[in-house]
Design brief:
Elements: E1 2-6, H1 20-27, E2 32-36, E3 50-51, E4 61-62, H2 64-72, E5 80-91, H3 94-103, E6 106-111, E7 116-117, E8 127-130, H4 140-151, H5 162-165, E9 184-185, E10 188-189, H6 199-217, H7 219-235
Parallel strand pairs: 1-2, 1-6, 4-7, 5-6, 5-8
Antiparallel strand pairs: 3-4, 9-10
Helix pairs in contact: 3-4, 6-7
Amino acid sequence: MNIDVITLFPDFFTSGLQSGLLGRALANAIASVNLVNPRDFTVDKHHRVDDIPYGGGVGMVLKPEPIFAAVNSLPRLPHSQVILLTPQGSPLTQTTLQDLATHYQQLILICGHYEGFDERIRYLADREISLGDFVLTCGEIPALALINGVVRLLPGTVGKTESLKAESFEEGLLDYPQYTRPAVFQDWEVPDILRSGNHQLIAQWRRDQQIQRTQKRRRDLWEKWSSETSSDQAES
């Protein structure tokens, strides 16, 4: 997969793109990330990418010309998607990451900054994505989160693909509790069932823990999962 990032701060990505599984995936050419600075597409001597807002107000607004020029400069693959990172977008979910990782060869991410961006920049985007109902200083943070979430789903990034199937949100539930050695730590003991060697009982315990944990911590997810499960059972 090719990922192009329109960003005023390419250096922001230096460490994140070189670390851990993501760094190894990029080094192994499972995906590629191309950082494009809109300043390189300005035509004035000061390389201005922002200006004061029409109608007045605080802060500066990203100009449309350099953003359009940066996006239009990119070679496009047949299955590509332009994504605008903005608090006004749809919340980023695991389902979104799966869709992007499965159906697209190229992602073009536009990172906002300053007070916002000229409304006409929205016409470039196929979809708008947000990390949640809060405001950050820049779009580079959600862009890096999206890159990480998508690339880890690509074949070859994670060694054991089975681990991708049993984690939080894959089935609409949170993950079950995990333990490792020692068996006892500061009076906290690993549940006996996990040391029993009975894989059928362990699987059932983990499933029960997923349901209980989701119901307690994320009632919204549990209600959605419960409703969908009941509907599937009724249809069968």
